[in-house]
Structure formats: structure tokens, C-alpha cells
Amino acid sequence: MELIEVFGYLCALIIGISLGLIGGGGSILAVPVLAYLFCLNEKMATAYSLFIVGSSALVGGIKQHYKGFVNWKIAFVFGIPAIIGVTIVRKFVIPVLPDILITIDDFDFTRRMGMFGLFAILMIPAAISMLKDRKEIIDQANKNTTYNYQLIVLEGIVIGSITGLIGAGGGFIIIPALVILANLDMKTAIGTSLIIIALKSLLGFFLGDTFTLEIDWKFLTVFTMISLVGIFIGSYLSNFINGKKLKKGFGYFVFAMAFFIFYMEFFVKQ
Question: Are 58 and 229 in contact (CB under 8 A)?
Fold first, then answer.
């Protein structure tokens, strides 16, 4: 095993630890780790990320269910459209996207640039959500308390489609949506979002990618298991470490990663 692979598996552990410590965010690092340390292409990196994200969210969601912080009705109202969105994108859209999406003069805008570029862009609001006090989201919800099933379903489809393209869970969008549109308290919104992420990520992977890609199950299982071990380590460490301060520091790190991905794809690759 090469040194870079050892570092990659160490990052898998760090992904899990960050999830256990701050309750989110770590899964957003799965795509860059898979793409740059294990040299997977954009299709495989986003597909594997769905499985890793979904498995991690499932563990967290089950824990929240036993604490009474999952609204299953909203999870299915939001989750079913999200599953449809991610499955359509992974099974029908991604396989037919050409290697070069568009050529402008001598510049080739590739499928990889499109998928990773969108991923980098969406990492920015994810980082902002980590820097934002949760009280601000609750205050925003108090200004808009309309229980809106239509918007919940629509946002489920949109987020599911985005998840299919970039391979990330989208919790930074789902949690505020559940607070504002479904009137859930913050703890229930977090628990419910984990179930939604698990459902759409895992089902999108199994209903879409397993039919169109050749999956390296041994690698994927090892990476995922290491991440899950990290979650339990992180949960234990959360008893001794200030999660709020750590979350803000992680937010700045996600900012840096977004610019790194953009630089790698649009400058180095050229």
C-alpha cells in the first residue's frame, strides 16, 4: 500500500471523527479525498461518496431516532422526492453526459469540471452554515412558519438532483428547510435530515450507480467502515471537546477546500 493511500484511509477516519464531533460536514470531504488521494474519476468519486455519506447518516439517524428526534412523516414527504431526484440523475443523466460538455475557443469545459465545479460552489454555503449560529436559523424560522408541503416536495426533488450530481448529502440546505418549511425544532430537524440523507444517498446509489458502474466493493466497504469507526470515536471525543468552536474551524477548512478543488480543476488540469 502506497503512502498516499494510507493518508487517504486516515482521512476516512477523520471524516468519521468530524461527523461524530460536530454532527455533520465531514461527509463533504469524501469526494475530494476519493478524487485526489485515490485518483477516482468524477463518476466513481461521487458514487462512492453517496454510499459513504448514506451509511454515515444512517448510523447517526438511528441514534437520533432512539432519542426521539426524527419526524418520520416529514422524512418521507421530503425523502421520497429526493430519492426520485437522485436516482434519475445517477441512473439516466450522469451516464449520458459527454466527457466535454462545451468548448469555448480553445477551452474545453469537461464533465469533471462541471460536477466538481458545482461541488466546490456548494461547499461555500455549506461552510457558511457551519459558521452560522443555529439560533439565527431558528430566528429565521420564526419569521416564516408556513407549513408548506408543496415546497417541501419541490425542495426534496431539487436537493436530490443536486446530491446525484455532486455526491454530497446537502444537510446544510435540508436542515434550514425543515426548520422553516416544516416547523421542526432544531434537534428534530437535524435527526430528520440524517434519515433523509441516508435514504436518498443509499437508494440513489443502489438504484442508480450499481446498474451503471463497476463497484469496487472491497475498497468501498473498507473506507466506509473506517469512517463509521471514526464516528464513534468522534462521539466519544465530543464529551471533552467544544463542538461549536471546532465546527467554525471546520467551516473555514471547507472554504479552503472549495478553492482548492476549483484551482485543481480549472487551472492545474488545464
Answer: no
